[in-house]
Structures are given as C-alpha cells and as structure tokens.
Amino acid sequence: MQPVSIIIQARTGSSRMHQKVILPFDQSRSIMQIVLERLLAACPVPVILATTTSPSDDPLAEIASRYPVRLFRGPEENVLERFILAAEKFGCKNIVRVCADNPFLSAASINQLIETFPETSADYMSFEFSEARPSIKTHFGFFAEITRLETLKKVAALTNEKLYLEHVTNYIYTHPELFDVHFLKAPEIIFSRKDIRLTLDTPKDFELQQQIFSALSQQNSNFEIPEIIGYLDQHPDLLAKMSREIRNNEK
C-alpha cells in the first residue's frame, strides 16, 4: 500500500482578500497556523506546505519553519505543476489536497480519505452530497480531496488550459471517462444542506467565521462537523448571513 501525504496549497495573493491566511484570526493565530496545527495533531501522515516563489509568500515559509512540516516553493499561477514538483521532491504517491483558507477543516474526514483511498483503484476521491455535488463544489470549507501523483501527471499531459492548471483536480472529476473517480457519501448531518458557508474568500467571511470559531473553541478546541452544525442551527441569524454570502459567491 502506497503511503499518503498531505499537501497544503497556500499563497497570500488572494484577489478577494489579500493575506487572509496570515492575518490574526483566533487571537494571535492565523488561519495558516490553525490548519497546520489541526492536521499535525490529528492526521498521521507527512504534511507539506506548497506555496509560491514570490517574496510576498515569505511569511508562509516563515510560519512553516515553526512546525514539523516540509516546505516547497514553486510556480504561483500553475498550481498543478507546483503540486507535481512538490510531490516528486518529497516522494509522495498519494496526495491529500488541502486549501489553506479553511479554518473549519475536518481532520476526521481527511483521515477517512487516508484510510479508504489506498485500498481502491481510484484516481481521485472526495465526498458527494445530494444532487451529486462533489465537496469541491460546495461552500462548506470542511473537506479535502485525494488523488495520485501519476494522475496529476496525466492531467498535465492532457491539458494546458489555465482553469485546470489553477484548480489542480478540476480536470479529473469533470472528465470521469478518463479517470477512475470515486465519491464517499458525505455525513448525513450535512448531506442535503445548502445554507452553510465556511469556506473563506472575503472580508465578510473572515469576520463572521472569526465569531463562530471563537465560540466553538471555547466549548471544545477539537470541534468537528457535528459541533459546528449544532452551533449554527442554534443561531439562525448566522445561517441567514451565510445564505446571503452564498448567493454573492455562487460556485
């Protein structure tokens, strides 16, 4: 069974909210620190931070230096190539792709992918929701996805379209005739939900999620999806704000 590694995709140059992953989010901690600490505490595999060679991303390299993680710096725009080069450098065969702007990332769901994927013939695996929505097409911000280095190399050989170079796995799950794509059923508690947005793109997302993260952390620092959903269902005003942002940021 080939081992699994986590590669976190991160940069500071977001067009909608510059430096969102390194700004103070939970007291003095940044989202980048929160994601690293969550993964290192809960996931029993190597963690790699893959950022860019741009000097603006030096702060990410500095953060990585404080943790037992590996650092790779590569192309800014061609994220697919960045992943391939990072995986080749560190000998990764199976790759969990994590986006750094998800402070509510579910380590439990990542461990499910880590345990399930190597036992299959799949080229790609993530979670599926009602109406056949893959997790990457939702606003949850809970989930990662897993693929193989050889699969990413196949994508690079098949296309040079900007969309697919920027979004790494998009070509795989939109071309199921070319790849073995598997989906795990999402947890029942959120399988049909469309009113939750905890992916972070904008200043409004940042402000709202700071409030939610602080409240949940005071109850249990290791909160997972059931605790998050329980808290949101007790606060319909927060769900209303999320619904507005979902409409404004439809994927």
DSSP summary, beta strand count: 10
Distance between the termini: 35 Å
Task: Report helical residue fraction.
Answer: 25-40%
> How many independent structural domains?
1
Summarize the biggest pleated sheet.
8 strands, mixed
Secondary-structure content class: alpha/beta
Instruction: Encode the helix/strand succession as letters.
Output: EEEHEHEHEHEEEHHHEHHH
Q: Name the assembly state.
A: single chain
Low-confidence segments, given as residue ranges, are: none
Number of helices: 10
Could you tell me the mean pLDDT?
Answer: 94
CATH H-level superfamily: Spore Coat Polysaccharide Biosynthesis Protein SpsA, Chain A
Shape: globular
Just name the CATH architecture.
Answer: Alpha-Beta Complex
Report the β-strand fraction as a percent range. 15-25%
Chart the SSEs and their pairings.
Blueprint: E1 4-9, E2 24-26, E3 29-30, H1 31-42, E4 47-52, H2 58-64, E5 70-74, H3 79-90, E6 94-99, H4 107-116, E7 124-129, E8 133-134, E9 145-148, H5 149-158, H6 162-167, H7 170-173, E10 181-185, H8 203-219, H9 225-233, H10 236-248
Parallel strand pairs: 1-4, 1-6, 4-5, 7-10
Antiparallel strand pairs: 2-3, 6-9, 7-8, 7-9
Helix pairs in contact: 3-5
Task: Sum up the structure in keywords.
single chain; about 250 residues; alpha/beta; Spore Coat Polysaccharide Biosynthesis Protein SpsA, Chain A; eight-stranded mixed β-sheet; two-stranded antiparallel ribbon; 10 strands; about 40% helix; globular
Q: Could you characterize what this model shows?
A:
This protein has 251 residues and is α/β, with parallel strands linked by helices. β2 (24-26) and β3 form a beta hairpin. It is 40% helix and 18% strand. It has a single domain (4-248), classed as Spore Coat Polysaccharide Biosynthesis Protein SpsA, Chain A (Alpha-Beta Complex). Strands 1, 4, 5, 6, 7, 8, 9 and 10 form an eight-stranded mixed β-sheet that branches. The chain has a two-stranded antiparallel ribbon with strand order 2-3. It has ten helices and ten strands. The mean pLDDT is 94. It starts with a strand and ends with a helix. The longest helix is centred in the last third of the chain and has 17 residues, at 203-219.
